[in-house]
Amino acid sequence: MTQTPMAQPMIRTRGLTRHFTRQKQTIEAVRGLDLEIAAGELVAFLGPNGAGKSTTLRMLTTLIAPTSGSAEVVGHDVVRERAAVRRSIGYVGQGNAAGHQQRGRDEIVSQARAYGMTRSAARVRAEELLAAFDLTEHADRPVSTLSGGQRRRLDVAIGLVASPPLLFLDEPSTGLDPQNRVNLQEQVRRLHQDLGTTIVLTTHYLEEADALAGRVVVIDHGEVIADDTAPRLKSTLGDLISLGFADPSYAVAAAARAERIDGAQVSVDGTDLTVRVAHGRDLASGLVTDLPAVGAPVSRIEVVGPTLDDVFLELTGRSLRETSTSTDTELEGAAA
Ligand SMILES: Nc1ncnc2c1ncn2[C@@H]1O[C@H](COP(=O)(O)OP(=O)(O)OP(=O)(O)O)[C@@H](O)[C@H]1O
Prior knowledge:
The structure is a single chain. By secondary structure, the protein is α/β, with parallel strands linked by helices. It folds into two domains: about 10-235, P-loop containing nucleotide triphosphate hydrolases (Rossmann fold, 3-Layer(aba) Sandwich); about 240-305, Alpha-Beta Plaits, CATH 3.30.70.270. Helices cover about 35% and strands about 25% of the residues. The longest helix is centred in the middle third of the chain and has 18 residues, at about 180-195. Keywords: Antibiotic resistance, ATP-binding, Nucleotide-binding, Transport. It is a peripheral membrane protein. This is ATP-binding cassette domain-containing protein.
């Protein structure tokens, strides 16, 4: 876990907790979060549906108050200094922020003007964002006639207008097709790299957290269960060496040899053998060379590095892919 103290974190939470009451039952949506995020970080909150990611973001953006605990955002308390927090951040929530009768282009221009840009700078910025999110040809339509996916893209574009020092994005990719998801990632990356914007986003796309975020905070049942860079989270698991043999007896002989590797987890399934071990990529060639000598010539070998889903599975016993439902097709296809 990366829990090194930092001088002036952009975000600092202490025991941050939020309960909801539904039908006389208490839901502990966020349970005692202690988190520090430094200026310039790009952090992904990764977790299944209902893990507490949005509730955390909503507290950090002052939309809802914590039940207990505290949070400071850009040096301001989220309860006592709500206005100051709001002035310092950008936020793209899960809902559609865009108004309904305005044209998409005008929405972006008005937002840019509200942040103090000149009319011509606002227009230039609007065209850039429309192009980046593949919205240019829809820019003159009233927002109410856009599809769900197009509106989502407009929401995110509006959120990126102002370039605040700290930007929160709540599931920005949900509802986008793969091409637009890539466009979005590119925009987020540029904002982070070119302007040094600190970015906190939530996602249940493992690949997105892996590819984009410098730090992945894995949240489950309202608690942080892992917090590190994606490579370090994965390195705790080791690689998976998958071997195939012409005969099941070869696989058994090979398993006996593989079990002698320190820390290896070995399993045999018919003619297939899998070995999970740290530095599997380096060990694989030695194993292949050794196996004919123990009467187990190899027919097939593949080495696969661990994914963030393997990390989640190891931590919780559940796959994030199974626990999360995607609303992509629903949104992208839902023309109004
Ligand atoms: N306003 C509310 N009233 C009652 N329960 C709520 C409310 N908001 C959230 N919850 C509950 O709190 C828990 C955490 O929800 P939250 O939306 O923070 O999860 P999440 O990780 O963002 O999930 P998702 O990926 O689906 O957005 C869930 O059990 C949810 O049903």
